[in-house]
Design a protein that fits this description.
The structure is a single chain. The chain has 16 helices and ten strands. The chain is an alpha+beta fold and about 475 residues long. Helix 8 packs across helix 12, helix 12 packs across helix 14 and helix 13 runs antiparallel to helix 14. The protein is globular, with a radius of gyration of 24 Å. The termini are far apart.
Length: about 475
């Protein structure tokens, strides 16, 4: 009898202990670095389910005022109804730099937007997401540039923002087809790097007239003030220790030695493979040097993807010195994906490629990417699948920058560019196509002939100027 009572007491104590343990893990497990069985936040299976086009109704009284004052960055209150669910207390504002000014210049109203779910209601989220972008596909007749590149990055193991297509209405009235994109803040960092994530930045210049050495990731000293374009653009909370670690990483990067102590080498090479393939000149490897995310953890840095509406060599189209040169861009060299001073002033690429091991690994990753993503036909499967999905929405898009026919021409052009580019990169990897500007200028090997490929089909400023919306 005594033994039976003792056994009952022990069982009861074990049950209590188990309950306490389960509750403790539920409340504090992530703080201890213990990941739940599924680390995917709820918003990933809702708005960012990219197998369908979602609906977002923006309900607000001040819509016309916000559009009229598009140059301002202040948030206006709104209620969002996403796939039938209502979210009150959100804030919305117009986003963009050059795209915003050009949309305004040509008298259009199809801006991109930022949405903060907790802007007017503290603690509010969309199933764990506090901010997203609604991107208008500016200078992208295919509507697919960003979606495709995020898929490429994800395929290559590079942490990329989630995205999906959404049919936007304003107070119940049709507005247009947009791409919803996960803003890279706490939820993004936690999703990719766990609860103990590092520091995340989106470096950007105040003015192109400034040196912007920090945006280029150049080390110029230890003073925090030298890196204002990085630190003021932090996307998560940072402190002085975070700043010192980043500056030290840039110092090591500047020496070109022991880079493995300051750079996540394999991760960064994977990013540059996709970045150079897509000929994105409005980026770190372009003249502006921005439009990337910078991630630092334990003193080591890497780049993450952001903003691709001007990729596939469409950055200059419509500018005074526009260069509609498909021969050049289809054959953009993979060894030196930028020219002259730009290349020399991008140490995260230039110094990394000085390492023989890094350069060899870059070629290995490129070979894998071309074989498994392009030569296998995966890229066209992705493009055509999404073309079919969004087709009826593009056809009825009331604010579209281009015609329905231009949309299909843009999709076809995207497929053609990827095919030609993959042929050129394969030749560059095998030595039959020149892989540096020096070799191309010397006439080494043979360039891939783009035939009748017409680069402006992918989207140009003229489409915005003559917008059909």
């Amino acid at each position: 009898m005594l033994n039976s009572k003792r056994a009952d007491i022990m069982c009861a104590a074990a049950i209590v202990f188990a309950v306490v343990l389960v509750v403790g893990f539920a409340l504090f497990g992530e703080r201890l670095g213990i990941q739940p069985a599924s680390s995917q936040p709820a918003y990933m299976t809702r708005l960012f389910d990219d197998s369908r086009v979602h609906t977002v109704d923006i309900q607000m009284d001040s819509w016309d005022t916000m559009i009229a004052e598009a140059s301002e960055d202040h948030y206006e209150p709104c209620t969002l109804i996403i796939d039938g669910e209502t979210f009150e207390g959100a804030g919305i504002r117009v986003k963009g730099n050059n795209s915003r000014s050009l949309v305004s210049k040509y008298g259009l109203e199809r801006y991109s937007f930022k949405v903060e779910f907790d802007h007017f209601k503290k603690g509010a989220t969309y199933h764990g997401l506090d901010k997203l972008s609604l991107d208008a596909s500016f200078q992208d007749n295919s509507y697919l540039k960003s979606y495709l590149i995020y898929d490429m990055m994800d395929y290559m193991g590079v942490p990329a923002p989630a995205c999906s297509y959404t049919w936007i209405t304003v107070n119940g009235e049709p507005w247009g087809l947009y791409m919803a994109t996960e803003e890279p803040e706490e939820a993004f960092a936690k999703r990719h790097f766990g609860p103990n994530y590092g520091a995340l930045y989106k470096p950007d210049y105040r003015s192109l007239e400034d040196p912007n050495t920090d945006v280029a990731l150049q080390y110029v000293g230890d003073d925090f003030a030298y890196y204002d374009n990085i630190f003021r653009k932090a996307l998560v909370d940072i402190d002085d220790a975070d700043k010192r670690r980043l500056i030290e990483a840039l110092r090591v990067l500047s020496t070109g030695e022991n880079l493995e102590s300051a750079v996540m080498i394999d991760e960064t090479l994977r990013y540059f493979v996709v970045q150079s393939f897509t000929v994105n000149l409005d980026s770190y490897l372009g003249p502006t040097g921005h439009n990337y995310l910078l991630y630092e953890e334990d003193g080591r840095i890497t780049m993450l993807p952001w903003d691709y509406n001007l990729a596939f060599a469409t950055y200059t189209l419509g500018m005074p010195d526009a260069e509609n040169n498909p021969l050049k861009y289809v054959n953009q060299p993979i060894d030196t994906p930028a020219e002259g001073e730009v290349m020399l002033n991008r140490p995260l690429y230039h110094n990394l490629m000085k390492y023989e091991d890094s350069f060899s690994r870059y070629y290995e990753l490129y070979d894998e990417f071309i074989a498994s993503y392009f030569e296998s036909g995966r890229y066209e499967v992705v493009i055509r699948k999404m073309e079919r999905l969004i087709d009826p929405y593009v056809e009825k898009d009331p604010t579209a920058y281009c015609s329905y026919e231009d949309f299909h021409a843009g999709v076809d052009a995207l497929v053609q560019f990827c095919d030609l580019r993959a042929q050129s990169v394969r030749g560059q990897l095998e030595g039959t196509v020149p892989s540096s500007y020096a070799e191309q200028e010397a006439g080494v090997g043979h360039l891939v002939d783009p035939g009748d490929f017409w680069l402006p089909d992918l989207g140009e400023i003229a489409d915005i100027k003559d917008g059909v919306g």
